[in-house]
Amino acid sequence: DPDAPRPYDDEPIPALSERTTGPGVDLRFLAGEFPWVPVVPRDDADLVEPGREGFAFEAPSSGAVEISGCVRITVPGDYTFTVRAPDAAVLHLHRALVIDGDSPGEDGGAHEATAKLEAGLHPFRLGYLTGGERASLEVSGPNAVEFVRPVKGE
Predict the structure, then answer these.
(1) What's the CA gap between 133 and 149, in Å, rounded?
(2) Among the residues of 6-146, which ranges form H helices?
(3) Burial classification of residue 89, based on how many CB atoms lie within 10 Å of its CB (0-12 exposed, 13-18 middle, 19 or more buried)
(4) pLDDT of 2-35, one tens digit each?
(5) What is the DSSP string of 84-112?
(6) Residue 79 near residue 115, CB atoms below 8 Å
(7) Which candidate, 45, 37, 79, 57, places its Cα nearest to that of 132?
(8) Which of 133, 120, 98 is nearest to 9 (CA)?
(9) Would residue 83 be called left, alpha or beta, if left means φ above 0 and alpha means ψ between -120 and 50 degrees?
(10) What distance in Å separates the CA atoms of residue 88 and residue 105, rounded to the nearest whole number?
């Protein structure tokens, strides 16, 4: 139920502690037919592209795409996340499901959710099913955001 109250609706979501980041997002693709949006494990993925700049991706004919990284917020406030997807899609923010477009019979389209965010890094994971088309993620709020990814070992 999209109108059901969530425990974090009135509280700002705290940011991760600061860490080393690099530009871009991580992308994984798993070929196949799926009845729902699966998590795409790195070891099972048919394609892995770390540090990809932007969401442009020419997917093979069918499968699941997972794009992950962090949104860097510089001004705290309410941010609206809009996902446009060709088929079923889900968006997690800090492991919380904020967009659930993965219901039976879901035909894709635009889905939107708003969250109160503190300044700093907020991890996200966008998963969607594709038949060759790609999804987009837009974030709007009090200030521009930057998509980055954590970099280990630096």
Answers:
(1) 24
(2) none
(3) buried
(4) 788 767 668 899 999 888 888 888 888 888 989 8
(5) EESS-EEEEETTEEEEEE-STT---EEEE
(6) yes
(7) 57
(8) 98
(9) beta
(10) 9
